[in-house]
Amino acid sequence: MAEAVEFDHQLEFAAEEFANHLAGNGEVMSFAQIATYYGIAINFVAFAAFGWDKAQAESGGWRVREDTLVGFVVLGGIVGALAGRAVFRHKTRKGSFGEKLWAAALANVFLIAGGWYWLSHSAEPVDPQEQARLDRVMASVTYPGCNEVRAAGKAPLHYGEPGYRSDMDGDGDGVACEDPPN
Asked: Could you tell me if 46 and 115 lie in one domain?
């Protein structure tokens, strides 16, 4: 019981230190820092869940649902889950659980790939002064339509270039007056 109390105090201390780091000197953590902290936390939780479930299985107590264990893997805890499974020798003989674990790991890879794609294709926030400058540049030249842009030899127009208008950008990708598809 004393070990559980000590662990609780260590967890509280770590959470407090993390909160102080976040609030600390007004700096904002980078995406990489947040992802690193998240990865450490979810893998620790997955590892601990396997240990807890093994202890509960041996003592006949309330167990952690398999779906919950697999859920930690979907959320990024594959390393912690595999380590917990090996260290505690828990659920190693159950083939169907192993299949669920690897399917969840694959789902996690797709989630990460989808998130990476979304982040890499989302628009960067623009400083208001920079946005005002871009608006002035784009308004400095006016074309009635894409035919005139092509006739002037300026097609395609990219966002931020003189003459660009969003109403000429049919698909909203930041490129106006693109060559029509063949």
From this structure: yes
Single out the residue of 15, 81, 95 nearest to residue 51, CA to CA: 81
Longest dimension (CA), the chain: 81
Classified as helix, coil or strand, 156 is coil
Provide the β-strand partners of residue 157.
176
Same domain, 61 and 151: no
Q: Which pLDDT score is estimated for 181? A: 64
Pairing status of strand 157-158 against strand 175-176: antiparallel
In which domain, by residue range, is 86 found?
2-121
- Let me know how long the chain is: 182
Tokens of 42: 């979810």
Q: What is the DSSP letter of 158?
A: E
Q: Which residue has the tokens 């659980």?
A: 97
Instruction: State what percent of residues in the chain have pLDDT above 90.
Output: 9
- Its pTM stands at 0.52
| Residue 7 vs residue 154, higher pLDDT | 154
Q: How many domains does the chain have?
A: 2
* pLDDT, mean of residues 13-36: 67
Cα–Cα distances in angstroms (integers) from residue 116 to residues 79, 90, 100, 104, 111, in the given order: 20, 33, 24, 18, 8
What's the confidence (pLDDT) of residue 37?
Answer: 92
